[in-house]
Write a structure and sequence with these properties.
CATH class: Alpha Beta
CATH architecture: Alpha-Beta Complex
Number of domains: 1
Strand content: 5-15%
Structural class: alpha+beta
Distance between the termini: 40 Å
Bound molecules: zinc ion
Oligomer: single chain
């Protein structure tokens, strides 16, 4: 395992709140217990920006959900958890995306998507200690994370960062009112150098 990487209390807290929203309090306890994370039960980190937690812990919470349901069953849960992390993150820290004074509705949809993805990448880089950036191609945007908690999870054959996929999906739904089929196309846990998410420019359905 590489050296661990600090992460804020609030980031881990948002993930735990999201797990609890999707799985309920008892389900969350069962998952944390089975995943060897007993010390988190009834002992969530505070919602502050102290860099007192670690990427490994964030990764192991996701891994605990995956192990509990099995890789196939866990996918839908992790996507829902990811969607909740975006909502909770924004609720706890409404200024995190730096959108004050920007009239989002006045911006054409694809430009708005790109703006939100770029704001998420700079918030991740500055606040979450997760260097991230956005690349645009003709038919899609690519959201690229240079570091990811999955580096501290067991190796996977397929991309496993469904929490991030869900968070990006929710961000796009929040931005446009539509569902975009976000896909992780490269993953550090499969040996790639970054986790890369493809966001098509065309939605798959109205929400
Ligand atoms: Zn990944």
């Amino acid at each position: 395992m590489p050296d661990d990487r600090p992460m804020s209390n609030a980031t881990v807290r948002v993930l735990l709140d999201a797990v609890e929203e999707v799985m309920g309090a008892n389900g969350t306890k069962a998952v944390l217990n089975a995943g060897g994370l007993k010390d988190l039960i009834d002992n969530y980190p505070p919602k502050d920006l102290d860099m007192a937690r670690h990427f490994s812990e964030y990764g192991l919470i996701q891994q605990a959900v995956e192990d509990f349901y099995g890789p196939r069953g866990a996918r839908a849960m992790l996507l829902r958890i990811g969607r909740a992390t975006f909502r909770f993150g924004l609720k706890d820290q409404p200024a995190i995306l730096g959108l004050a004074g920007i009239a989002l509705k006045a911006i054409p949809e694809q430009k708005r998507m790109k703006l939100i993805l770029e704001k998420m990448a700079s918030a991740a880089t500055d606040r979450i200690n997760q260097p991230s950036h956005v690349r645009e191609e003709d038919d899609a945007f690519y959201y690229i994370q240079d570091e990811c908690p999955c580096r501290w999870r067991p190796k996977h054959d397929k991309p496993c960062c469904y929490v991030s996929v869900g968070a990006i999906m929710e961000a796009m739904a929040w931005t446009t009112g539509k569902i975009y089929k976000v896909e992780e196309v490269a993953c550090i846990s499969n040996g790639a150098s970054n986790c890369v998410y493809r966001i098509p420019k065309e939605p798959s359905e109205e929400e």
